Amino acid sequence: MSTSATDLIEVRLTAIRYAAKDTNLYEFRRTDGQPLPTTEPGAHIDIHLPNKITRQYSLVGSGQEPRTYVVGIKRDPGSRGGSSYIHEQMRVGTVLKISQPRNNFPLNERAAHSILFAGGIGVTPIWCMAQRLGSLGKEWKLYYSCRSRDEAAFLEDLSYFGDDIVTFNFDSENGGKFLDLAGILQDAPRDAHLYCCGPTPMLKAFEAAAQGAGFPSSQIHVEYFTAAAEAATEGGYVVELARSKREFLVPAGKRILEVLRDGGFDVTYSCEEGVCGACETTVISGQPDHRDSILTESERVASKTMMICCSGSKGARLVLDL
Asked: Helix H segments across the chain?
């Protein structure tokens, strides 16, 4: 199954607002009138669409028991049925279910300096972080890159802060030049925490620039929209489920999640690409072959958990706490 049905929240789409070219803000409220779960900057939810597709979207705001959740959704020309359905079919009044919020991209509110980087619709969680940092009186800067000015969500709100805090980079206005990530990070305070959300090429360039500038992994934070690596499908190992006292052989061409599902084992999952964290599972023994976009390098070395939707095993046996 996907996220446990008992954890899902029934909501109604109560507003649709224009945010930028091909991007709308969608507001949801609980159908029972109760407050929604508390959220923090960087959190996302799974939206279970009426067409049976589930997609993950970052929340625009955060706070204690909010009455609404708002997500920004850009219509993707290559949509596989998620953003296209939302833009073309969903109307105010639509009732659907969402997951409890999860946060794989948390904001360190104790940091003395925060430098935020956003590309395209990746500005959604970044804008949420900027609002929180502003309310805390913290020092922050934002670099926002977009193809063109009319595609930039929250442009008016962000322009209010001025050039000293927010720097815009529009491809259509500067000859297609990319942000000078390496230059920005070389000059950044050494105690700054760095955050980036955007297209995969930007994220990979950001990680390389941050590491090249000498920042430790504990200060580098990214959120991927799509898988950063190919799923592990080499197979040829056994997965032992310690609590259930069951074993499964994972053959070549299959992922752990697929094998467990095919074997009738009930497991929580959502994106199946290693970007949402729904299937994170505790590892008792064995050496995972990590292919997700969530765990930090130190967490991968420790291998206390893994994402079974995309990661595999480097050894002959992997024992999981399931």
From this structure: 83-89, 123-136, 155-159, 181-186, 200-212, 256-262, 297-302
Q: Are 202 and 225 a contacting pair, CB within 8 Å?
A: no
Domains of the chain, start order: 5-98 (2.40.30.10), 113-223 (3.40.50.80), 237-320 (3.10.20.30)
Mean per-residue pLDDT of the chain: 94
Q: What distances in angstroms separate CA 39 from CA 52, 60, 103, one per listed residue?
A: 25, 10, 8
Low-confidence stretches of the chain (pLDDT < 50) are: 1-3
Query: Cα angle vertex 70, ends 164, 274, to 5°?
Result: 90
Tell me the pTM.
0.86
* Residue found under tokens 């969530």: 294
Q: What are phi and psi of 7, to 5 degrees?
A: -95, -10
Residue from 263, 265, 264, 277 nearest 310 by CA: 277
